[in-house]
Amino acid sequence: TERRSYTVDLIAGDGIGLEVVPAATRVVDALAARHGFGVSWREREWGSEYFFAHGRMMPVDGIERLSDGDAVLLGAVGHPELPDHETLWGLLIPIRREFVQYVNLRPVRILPGVVSPLRDVSQLDIVVVRENVEGEYSAIGGRAYRGGAEEFAVQEAVFTRGGIARVARFAAELALARGGGLTSATKSNGIIHSMPFWDEVVASVVGEYDGVGLRSVLIDALAAALVLRPGDFDVIVASNLFGDILSDLIAALAGSIGIAPSANINPPREHPSMFEPIHGSAPDIAGRGVANPVGQFWSASMMLEHLGERAAAAGLMDAVEDVMRAGTRTRDLGGSAGTEEFTSAVLSTINT
Ligand code: NAI
Ligand code: MG
């Protein structure tokens, strides 16, 4: 039989992305050797440095160059001397949209050796399913009378029946597989057009799934409940903006944003999916070798799972958990290990 092999585009990007992405490729290569598959990495030197040289975050045909790959593994983009909307809309958002990665999947668990900033929290195992290509993140609108007293801004949100239904379906199937309930984040009391529409479409799709109980909760109350009773939640489906905010909140409950992964998924698999930690380029610690690589490792594990390499995906997280259980932790978690020391510990766990 032919050896399984995958082509993965690597966009390390900026700041600590340049430190945690190479760590992740070493770990994936070690797993590939163990589990009998191969990965050919295509390194893409895109991001802010590329912008300073070429005036754009990636080449004009960047999307096309990625399109025949099996997946994209991304670090982070963001530079203190560039506006954040430039970096985001110049690379991340075009990839998510052109490849119709309409699900942004963000699991959160408390890993061994991590103490939640919340008192008494030990049970926390939540997956946020964030709508990833429409909603509040829209380029429709504009600004007028710049700098004047009459200046104004208009920002439109776009919600479509098809867009809401497909993310609700993904969330319902995940809730069914996990055997838990499904919570939908809403704000239909204040946002009177799009959010009642969201509620209706979510309820009708989830209604087709017998085993899934649906709770619709207002986003403000949901934020409070997640802090007070995080153990009550399992799968949460949310619009682009609400999902973005909730997943950072929940990731913080699990100890550090350096841990949390995300997967931008094109469920029909017509295009590559993209895997990235939720943290940014962390310019405050970049270049010092202290970044926590766990968010990048967990993202790589989700990528392996998506590629069908289940054993390697589980092996990666088992190794990370073993290392953390044994007390090796980076500084954001109160430890003293640097990126290299943590990565070496994971590699030797995989290789024994
Ligand atoms: P950030 O996530 O880069 O950093 C927030 C704080 O968490 C910092 O104190 C940082 O040192 C710490 N931190 C983050 N990841 C860590 C890790 N792996 N290990 C240890 N500590 C870690 O968010 P911030 O500071 O708001 O944004 C910095 C830049 O990153 C901005 O330009 C922003 O636009 C960009 N950004 C990019 C994202 C992406 O590429 N998906 C996501 C979020 C922000
Ligand atoms: Mg975010």
TrEMBL record:
One of its GO terms (molecular function) is magnesium ion binding. It comes from Flexivirga oryzae. Its EC number is 1.1.1.83. It is an enzyme of class 1 (oxidoreductase). The lineage of its organism: Bacteria, Bacillati, Actinomycetota, Actinomycetes, Micrococcales. Keywords: Lyase, Manganese, Metal-binding, NAD, Oxidoreductase. PROSITE patterns: IDH_IMDH. This is D-malate dehydrogenase (decarboxylating). SUPFAM superfamilies: Isocitrate/Isopropylmalate dehydrogenase-like (SSF53659). Belongs to the isocitrate and isopropylmalate dehydrogenases family. Its cofactor is Mg(2+); Mn(2+). Residues 7-346 form the Isopropylmalate dehydrogenase-like domain.
